[in-house]
Amino acid sequence: MAALVGVTGCAGVGDAGASATARTRVSVPAPASAALGSSTPAAPSAGPTSSVSATPSSAMPSPAPGSPAPGNGPAPSPSGPPPFSAKIEKVSRDDVRQSWRPGCPVPLSGLRKITMTYWGFDDQAHTGVLVINKKVAEDVASVFGKLYEMRYPIRRMVPVDVYKGSDNDSIDADNTSAFNCRNATGSGNWSNHAYGLAVDLNPRENPYVYANGSNAHRNADAFVDRPLKKPGVINSGDRVVRAFGQIGWGWGGSWSGAKDYQHFSENGR
Ligand SMILES: [Zn+2]
Q1: Were both Cys, which of 64, 123, 154, 181 would link to 118 (CB 3.0–4.6 Å)?
Q2: How does pLDDT run across 220-249, given as a tens digit for each residue?
Q3: Ligand 1: distance of its center to the CA of 165 in Å?
Q4: Has residue 102 been placed in a domain?
Q5: How many whole angstroms separate alpha carbon 226 and alpha carbon 206?
Q6: 75 C-alpha vs ligand 1 centroid, how far in Å?
Q7: Is pLDDT above 90 for 61?
Q8: Neighbours of 93 (CB within 10 A)
Q9: For residue 231, what pLDDT is reported?
Q10: Residue 189: inside a domain
Q11: Is 140 contained in some domain?
């Protein structure tokens, strides 16, 4: 009779639960990262999808033996934070009303919404939402799983629609985001964000720094130098850069000239 015990409240319970789950996962062909060779399919029992614990909605008979899953018993142990979880879902028009429009280089059907755990600057676990291209959703979720495990702090994680699609306002809010149908900074070409193939991580701690050393956000002035030892700051070759590197993504902090310390992308640009 433990079926309805809280914890998993998210996915449609009841009758055709299977189809609801299928919709969640359907276009996420499991380990698409095999070619990249490194996204540690270590998870002993949770399935082939590395650290992305795909929220086993209704019928998960027993907790995974290897992990401290809050399955049946006394739910979250008081001794530690919850395990990382990520749920990947399709995106509706309403999800991206401000940040997507006809003519964007990726169709709505090519986007996914990842609802996942992140570690906050307050040393607590939080839940955030990242909108991203469906072909990289699982890989990127696995990277955020690693960031969570290493307790890399993230300030905020909401879709840029919260800021009406304004990259400037999202940056000022130190918001971590991915998809935004906009041009690249200082350019008339689509940004990789317009394809959902780039992530900006803690943009205040990791500003875009012009070749002359200036940056456009006064609240980031204390973060333009590298290397810099402060929470949330990304430095060359550190664990954050390596975690993205493991799915083949490049870091804007390694560019010559202007440096985009917050920026990771599939093609490195
Ligand atoms: Zn970016």
Answers
A1: 154
A2: 999 999 999 999 999 999 999 999 999 999
A3: 14
A4: yes
A5: 10
A6: 38
A7: no
A8: 8
A9: 98
A10: yes
A11: yes
Please list all protein residues whose beta carbon sits less than 5 angstroms from ligand 1, which is an ion. Answer: 198, 200, 263
As a whole number, mean pLDDT of residues 19-33 equals: 37
Q: DSSP class of residue 94?
A: G
Share the mean pLDDT of the chain: 80
Residue 39 Cα to ligand 1 midpoint, Å, equals: 23
In one letter, which amino acid is 8? T
Retrieve residue 154's tokens: 């993230």
pLDDT of res. 77: 57
Residue 139 pLDDT exceeds 50: yes
pLDDT digit string, tens, across residues 72-104: 444 555 778 999 999 999 999 999 999 999 999
Query: H helices within 101-225, ranges in order?
Result: 137-149, 167-172
46 occurs within a structural domain: no
CA distance 254 to 118: 25
Query: Measured in angstroms, how far is the CA atom of residue 23 from the centroid of ligand 1?
Result: 29
Instruction: Report how far ligand 1's centroid is from the alpha carbon of 124 (Å).
Output: 26
Compute, in angstroms, the gap from residue 48 CA to the centroid of ligand 1: 30
The count of domains in the chain is 1
Best CA proximity match to 250, nearest among 268, 269, 234: 268
168 alpha carbon to ligand 1 midpoint, in Å? 11
pLDDT digits (tens, 9 = 90+) for 117-128: 999 999 999 999
> Can you give the residue range of the structural domain that contains 189?
86-265
